[in-house]
Design brief:
Elements: H1 29-41, E1 46-49, H2 60-68, E2 75-80, H3 85-95, E3 99-103, H4 109-115, H5 122-135, E4 140-143, H6 155-162
Parallel strand pairs: 1-2, 2-3, 3-4
Amino acid sequence: VTDRCNLRCSYCMPEEEYSWLPKGDILSLEEVARLVEVFTLNGVKKLRLTGGEPLMRRGLPELVAMFAANPGVEDLAMTTNGVLLAERARSLFRAGLHRVTVSLDSLDEDVFLRMSGGRGELGKVLAGIDAAEEAGLSPIKINVVVQRGVNDHTVLELLQHFRGTPH
């Protein structure tokens, strides 16, 4: 839904200066909803909102509501880095979002900061996961990119943190 992102993860968008698409090249909410209508008329039943970082898209709750109003959409999910999720989870759930996948590469603050290009705030991501659960976005999936010598030593802690939780 957007090419914008508020992080610069080393495996995804490592450049400090990035060539963003001109705003005129980004589809409007109505254009995206029309595409989804065409997709569902051709048998698509599951949608996943991605980016960049989809939470940076203006009007995202309205877009989610458009998708949710489409009778062909049976599963509506979003993948996010979670930084902005705490403040938006409830409105997205009310708009019709079913579930989220949160990218979280480490619970070690230093490793997380290094992997996010110095822009991430681990506390905000964890608060976003909690807010998503409280809002009813379920199940919550955690996505981890494991890099040898970067965060591989923190994966066990991450697994133990989320083991046994409803995420």
